[in-house]
Known about the structure:
Low-confidence stretches: none
Shape: globular
Number of helices: 7
Order of helices and strands: EHEEEHEHEEHHEHEH
Mean pLDDT: 88
Largest sheet: 7 strands, parallel
Strand order of the largest sheet: 3-2-1-4-5-6-9
CATH architecture: 3-Layer(aba) Sandwich
Structural class: alpha/beta
Radius of gyration: 17 Å
Strand content: 15-25%
CATH superfamily: NAD(P)-binding Rossmann-like Domain
Number of strands: 9
Distance between the termini: 20 Å
Amino acid sequence: MASIFITGGTGYMGRHLIPPLVNRGHTIRALVRPGSESKLPPGCTPVFGDALDAESYAGLVPPSDTFVQLVGVPKPNPKKGQQFREVDFKSGMAAVTAAKQAGIRHLVYVSVAHPGPLMQAYIQPRVEVEQVIGASGLNATILRPWYVLGPGHRWPYLILPAYWIMALLPSKRETARRLGLVTLKQMIAALVQAIENPAHGIKIVGVPDIRRCR
């Protein structure tokens, strides 16, 4: 069983990831700001710090052996470019720094599918974090969803017909696969699988692989 340190445990994915991990016997410690610990699902231990500042929590990561970085701006849209740089990039960089200082055996990082024709301000900060992970020497699994469908995140169902058409066109088929939609259930299953099957080196998990998870 893994000893897991999670950032973003009170967020969209974190709140759904922690319960199955607890049920599977893993030990969970989750980073929160003071006063937010009541938002965490039951069964995990709160650790207080600032996800944007590695020095505020790096010394508290041990004895965890697995680090899961889930912090990000909720409901991304093109108007949030500065927030992506201030939150997604800074929290990702802090996670890499803290994981290295703590001697983490395996980092799990939720990035985003790329390249893509839209949302460059969202994509670029996460690509930069991926590059830092690659140069860090850490063992890491990088998951690259495009949009995760779930409660409060269903509007992309409206564009599913466009995906079906793209999948029929040879010139667009690869893009449709790489930038396909995944469900929250698939994403949580992919995260559990990544945690329970640690990478040696860097492992990339794209949309087609996420969709196969149950």
